[in-house]
Known about the structure:
This protein has 446 residues and is an all-alpha fold. Helices cover 85% and strands 0% of the residues. The chain has one domain (2-443). Helix 14 runs parallel beside helix 16. The longest helix is centred in the middle third of the chain and has 64 residues, at 243-306.
Amino acid sequence: MHNKAENPLSQSFTMCSLLAFALPTMSAMVFMGLYTAVDTVFVSRFVHTNALSALNIVCPVVNLIVGLGTMLATGGSAIVARKMGAGDPKRASQDFTLIVCAGAGLGAIIAVFGTAFVDAIIRRLGASPALFPYCREYLSTILLFTPASILQVIFQNLIVAAGRPALGMLLGAGAGIVNLALDYVLMVPLHMGIRGAALGTGIGYMVPTAIGIAFFCTGKSRLRLRKPVLDVDVLIESSANGVSEMVSQAATAVTTFLFNRTMMNLLGEDGVAAITIILYTQFLLSSLCIGFSMGVAPVISYNYGKQDKSRLRNVFSICLRFICILSLCVFAAAFAFGPRLALLFSESGTPVYDIARNGLRIFSFGFLFCGLNLFASAAFTALSNGKLSAIVSFLRTFGLITSLLLTLPRFLGVTGVWLAVPTAELITMIVAFVFLHQNREKYHYI
């Protein structure tokens, strides 16, 4: 009982206790999805559909920033949890602090250079003259909060590794509430337009960052901020181990660009606004699967580092069963309530709403397969196998979608755009099953 109280990662999990452990992270991801979607809802309703399109134009830059933060967070979390499981909390804290410092420094560099070249970046992303002012207002503002954006991702992941998933949920909730409130105040009464949306999001990033710093400085956790050891190998391993998450976000940046270009060619700016609605809806609905996979990853890393094969198999069995159930539920919700979600962004009867509603009917089938893919990628990261994790992420977010987007619309038109993601997820799921089967003896998770 003492070990359980000292470190919740060491307990013997049941389905209920593992879900209770992962629930805060799942909730945090849902809140993150909500306050990400809030920007698009407010921009669409209170600014203009061109502003909504502008959000998707600059989205690749935001994807890359989130990808860098997630790479350090997930890769670093696996290292920290493994060393805690091996009984070395001091070195785990030193490595954790090094990762935090690296994230803050990287964010500052991106903020400086991104701001200096913001106009060139927007032009390269293909913004039209009508969209350029919206793009510039949003991107130039959000770049100022890059360090906080990266740190809040790191803290939310590492707080779970510290055995305090409930606090991670509170961080996500706090950020979402602040963002929601500020979006309304800045965009409606103060009439700050799309810049207000960027400010609301940026200040929302600062909430979990400030709380995370305070939490890890108190010394009440076994994992805390302390003088780091400058170990380049730790940063390299964190980056390599979490590269799949970076691959995923970088691929999302490229595919978002391709979605924008394809929809602009097929349906014009209304098409770009519609695909924006669908992509943000996809992130919101898949956030449950992402949160579950992130929430259980430290448990997998801990038991792998401890070489407790029995508990590792138990956790893996629970995860596979739950992710299948969750995927079915998310698909059912997307298929049944997709049109109502589209109504949040655009009024019924408008071209944007009609395009988004029709697209969601087909697009939602991807949720049947993406849950297992997300879990497989997170699990291999937790097992310090960044290579297989990266392959799974690459296939579902870039390799297959890119080729499908470049081919299917030529024969099927807009329907080809909607089919690209479900087809990519299905093929990736088959590959993920093969990887899980081939490595069962190596990691003893089955």
